[in-house]
Amino acid sequence: MKKLSIACLAGLLSHSAMANITVSIEKDFLELGVYAPLFDDAYLFVGADTDDWLGVGVGYYYDINPQWKLGAYYEYGLYDDWLMHEIGIDGVKTSSHQVDLSATHYFGHSAAKIGVTAERVRNGFTWLTVDDVDKYSLYLSASHYFQHVYVTGKYEHYLAVDQSDMENFNQGHANAWELSLGSMHSLFNFYPYAKVSVFDPNGTYYGQSNSDVTFSINGTFSFR
Question: What start and end residues bound the annotated signal peptide (predicted)?
């Protein structure tokens, strides 16, 4: 999941008989994802976007009690290798393996979540490694649910450890902030939400040195 938020899916995924289609739209960018139940508390995710990314993941939720929920998610991703694409060679893919472990605590009409991620990114060729990097993050989020809308805020800190032949190209730290506002009620089985994101590298992170602010319109189609 590169752009999609699962804040609005927390309640939907607790119903194993439901499938969900998610969509995220930014300027010149579109991502689609499908969540489908495998069995009780487990689900399958398949996603793709207009940057030629394709991801397949599996997730599992475990309810410790009505207040606490643990989550585990694994995703395998493929996308075009940017260096090969720049020099006109198509078909070379960069792969990634990502793990997300989280814990969520519910407070009546609110929820708080803490999680960690680890991602291993590797080139599709071996004679020159550019994208080889190990990425980690720690995130905190909080949501409050009103009668008709919900608000979610999220902070995430990123660390990248370069493993490529490009010395320190992918190295660094970065911070990200997100604010989402969504509907608690569906419109023809569609739950819309809007999200503002700020990504701020500490110096240089993964080749990026400038802060980036994005606005996206998102939503989830939910089907039984």
Answer: 1-19
